[in-house]
Amino acid sequence: MSPQTRDASTEATETESPNLDFAGTTPYEDYVQADVLTHLQHLRSDDPGEMVFLVTTQVMELWFTVIVHEWETAAHALRRDDVPVAVAALKRSIRELDALNASWRPLAQLTPAQFNSYRGALGEGSGFQSAMYRRMEFLLGEKSASMLVPHRGAPRVHAELEKALHEPSLYDEVLALLARRGYAVPREVLERDLAKKYEPSDAVEAVWTELYSGDESGELARLGETLTDVGELVWRWRNDHLVATRRAMGSKTGTGGSAGVAWLEKRAVKNVFPELWTARSHV
Ligand code: HEM
Asked: Which Pfam families does this entry report, sorted A to Z (predicted)?
């Protein structure tokens, strides 16, 4: 190699190769904490299929966390009458819900024999005990104080859930905005007990009917459609979960103590943001 070529290749190495030399942990590790994240897989059985079950569940927990963040961003923006910021956060959450739902793929065809190989090792553990999923439901208006009970032993989780129980849901913020914009949202809806499940209202249905019968490109009609996309994707998550459960365990009782599929069926038929769906019959 001539000195000239050597110089050129040394220079290329210096300019094109990533840095290798760090005094402590890498800046990537400091930010992502990949070492922590990839050592959280404490398997309970020798079954090779348990890893993907655990990691899929952990991945879904991370998506729940991102989605809660987006919906809280949207709720706070609505409170400030900042609809564009709210819609941007909701639109991000739609793509995240798509990714969340796609993560059913590795578990969607689980057979009862495969699931049985590690099911016993789960003990009484069940996704029903997911606090982040419960925060998602609370933001959608599915409030229930009894859902705090399983978390009594975890003070931070319990405090976060209790706060979320008493805060307005995303839908409460939407309805308050509609009222501020002059739509006839009844006082009893606006002043409802926030810790209770949102109950559908004929008057709210009439508001959405009015909005959907007007200019479809208007800010509030578009907000309604974005919320409908969110509702549809949550409904899809619930139904994908239901079908995966039916395939993996038939009508056996759940590890969390419920009737299993029969209990999940009742949960899966519920509409998120109910009047956004029922109003469609009147437009
Ligand atoms: C194919 C594997 C799965 C089966 C067979 C299954 C089964 C069940 C069953 C039977 C229930 C009802 C409660 C109970 O008695 O346990 C339940 C609830 C639940 N599961 Fe799963 N599950 C599976 C995967 C997952 C995954 C990967 C997640 C992600 C976090 C998850 C999250 C949930 C949630 C959030 C609930 C509560 C739903 C609600 O409150 O409406 N499940 N699951």
From this structure: Trp_dioxygenase
